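Internal ticket - ligand job 334, alpha-D-ribofuranose:
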Amino acid sequence: MTVQTTPVRMVLDCDTGVDDTLAILYAALHPAVDLLGVGSVWGNVDVDTATGNSLHTVHLAGRPDIPVARGAAGPLTGAPPVFAYHVHGRDGQGNAGTGRAVGRPAGETAAEQIIRLVRAHPGEVEVVAVGPLTNLALALGLCPQLPGMVRGVTIMGGAALAPGNVTEVAEANIWCDPEAAAAVFRAPWPLTMVGLDVTMRTTLDDGHRARLAAGGSIGGYVSDILDHYLGYFASVAFGERRSCMHDVLAVAVAAGTLVPTLAPTVRAFVETGDGPTRGQTVCDLRGMYMGFPPQDGASCRVVLQTDPAFADEVVALIAGAGDSAVPLDREEHA
Ligand code: RIB
Ligand code: CA
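stdout (structure tokens):
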């Protein structure tokens, strides 16, 4: 097994709700990642709430040096954004956030930040997007040479064989902005799709929460924000208090700390029509009965299997992170 010694330079784009918070913490804390910047985007919550949560999270991790840039407030087409407060709480932190504003956003947009950081390290930066792909599509529009300058792009989004989680076939990050996602899938960069096929199968339960709570105050905070999230998934997906982990899997696959056990590279595109399949990721998996032989025009590595025990590693990392650098008592507002 190859042990990667140089940390992967990463820019992480998030619609910071509960699972995005775990993804930022993992990226900020794990020695295999050199987190250069975080971008925020609308999605789970409005972009200002996402930006505030991202700032809070990098400070929570003791990494106020990581810049957070505010991104798009809605989809590329100008259609009104639809948020998921019912999943992530009104504050995007399971209604258990501190309510504190910590730090200030960078003086550039999230798309501009992606371009600047990629240009500063040509061929080295992995762009990881775990919200709607609006910022990434905007970056492509601003810098058409971007695909030739990145190490790769990894997204949490889509569903190859699994059902959707917004419609029968569409996953939330793709469904929110299918036009942006289609542009990202069409661009000539190495794309890895970490979708519901694996993110629904790596889950956290109250046992994990107890281990987090037994760590320092960072673990305690994460345990608190997961409470509402577990309740949501109990009612809509699992029938018991358990939540999927989603976004942190994309960070770990990009960092090489989670190695997929099945991830063919195939043709893939996003459906942008107005019918019932809008937002579907269509992946050509017809080679599956032959061990996925090489395919002409294949451009997307689709992650189909990972080890569900990865959840324990995430919990151990965060529980072992010690105490927060920011106060975690709830700010009282008049
Ligand atoms: O479908 C799950 C994805 O949608 C996750 O990234 C979650 O945070 C939301 O953005
Ligand atoms: Ca997300």
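Auto-summary: Residues 15, 17, 19-20, 43-44, 130-131, 156, 165, 171-173, 246-247 surround alpha-D-ribofuranose (ligand 1) (CB under 6 Å). Residues 217-238 form the longest helix (22 residues).
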